[in-house]
Amino acid sequence: MAHINDNYLKLQAGYLFPEIGRRVQQFAAANPDARLIRLGIGDVTRPLAPAVVEAFHAGIDDLARRESFHGYGPEHGYQWLSEVIIEKAYKPLGVELKAAEVFISDGSKCDTANILDIFALDNKIAICDPVYPVYIDTNVMIGRSGEADSRGYYEGITYLPMTAENNFTPALPVEKVDIIYLCYPNNPTGTVATREQLQVWVDYAVANESIILFDAAYEAFIRQPGIPHSIYEIPGAKNCAIEFRSFSKTAGFTGVRCGLTIVPEELGARTFGGEKIALNQLWNRRQGTKFNGVSYPVQKAAAAVYSDEGWTQITATIDYYLHNARLIREGLTAAGITCFGGENSPYIWLKTPEEMASWDFFDKLLSECHVVGTPGSGFGPSGEGYFRLSAFGDVEDVKEAVKRLRDRWGC
Ligand code: MLT
């Protein structure tokens, strides 16, 4: 008889976003006349940039001709894409990388999950709370945790609370940890980390031979000068950090799928015998075996993001979303709702009115205002009493949603 991976049975609920989708669908079916405004999952709504579309088409045309046809590409991506990323996304930050350190993939969600393949199960993991649920769920799935307690904390995982009380700056863990997940600009709280704050983590990781898994999926939303876009802007980071980036939010690729992971050649971790092994070599091996690369037209489209035209166009789209974020933040703040984030990020993290529990507020907002958001507690126990709104919607929808919230809860 076949046996299941019973770690899956430890997972507390369905994955957050499908669960929200299910509740919304149920509501919509029962209330067909309600005009729903969806500010829940951080899914983009603006079309791809024209320069990206043109390159995408050209990539498909290449596949249509014998002389420019491409079959399997390199598992870690075409060198021309890695090189343009290094040149345009990292060099301006003062970060030097080699093409062999850049791994093109189908998105950072998959990579932040798959990276666990190259680490031993006995590593002690530290995770911010609240957090992007993929980090925690994937560790539970592979068996790195025990059961969850009544508050939702899994045994064996170190949680780093991130709340208004500590200004969304998680403190270093008390016990020694081996792998630390950091995400900045942060999902879900929309807050950012300064150079000094990141330096504290890098120093900790170097001193303890820990690895930082740094999710920079939202770096393109940083507008404030001086806020780091990459962990490698921090001295010492190449010796302790893997960085994940995504074209999803940067260039509207949530449905197209393309991301990248940087594994510096000098980054290593030890065997149980104490020998230091390059993680780049292991990740390369893992990808070569389990992944066949991103399609050629998608990589063509991704490279076009960095053309002068492409960059101008995607910057305008990000500005559009940041304008939405400002409308939400300012509109709700004026209504007496406490808001965080939304300045260098597409997410606004708010304190629920009347100290409602997150899911209660979700239900009220849905049933009374027909607005969909994401309950903070879905991101972890410390998210209880908070709520996330995404700025990825249409500007007129965003204005209408803010109006509905103000009419219902404004003081
Ligand atoms: C979110 O809403 O947190 C994101 O869209 C989820 C994701 O990027 O997978």
Helix content: 25-40%
* Level-2 CATH architecture of the largest domain: 3-Layer(aba) Sandwich
In the predicted model, the low-confidence regions spanning at least 5 consecutive residues are none
How many DSSP helices? 12
CATH topology of the largest domain: Aspartate Aminotransferase, domain 2
Radius of gyration: 21 Å
Mean pLDDT across residues: 96
Q: What is the N-to-C succession of helices and strands?
A: HEHHEHEHEEHEEHEEEHHHEEHEEEH
* CATH-level-4 superfamily name of the largest domain: Type I PLP-dependent aspartate aminotransferase-like (Major domain)
Separation of the first and last Cα atoms: 62 Å
CATH structural class of the largest domain? Alpha Beta
Q: Sheet with the most strands? A: 7 strands, mixed
Tell me, briefly, the overall form. globular
The total domain count is 2
- Unique ligands: D-malate
Total strands: the figure is: 15
What is the SS-derived class?
alpha/beta
Spatial arrangement of strands, main beta sheet: 2-8-7-6-5-3-4
Strand content: 5-15%
Please give a handful of descriptors for the protein shown.
seven-stranded mixed sheet, single chain, Aspartate Aminotransferase, domain 1, alpha/beta, binds D-malate, 411 residues, 12 helices, globular, Aspartate Aminotransferase, domain 2, 2 domains
What's the arrangement of secondary structure elements?
Layout: H1 16-30, E1 37-38, H2 50-63, H3 79-90, E2 102-105, H4 108-114, E3 125-129, H5 133-141, E4 158-161, E5 179-183, H6 195-208, E6 211-215, E7 241-246, H7 248-251, E8 259-262, E9 268-270, E10 276-278, H8 279-290, H9 296-304, H10 308-334, E11 339-341, E12 347-351, H11 358-369, E13 371-372, E14 374-375, E15 386-390, H12 395-409
Parallel strand pairs: 1-13, 3-4, 3-5, 5-6, 6-7
Antiparallel strand pairs: 2-8, 7-8, 9-10, 11-12, 12-15, 14-15
Bound molecules: D-malate.
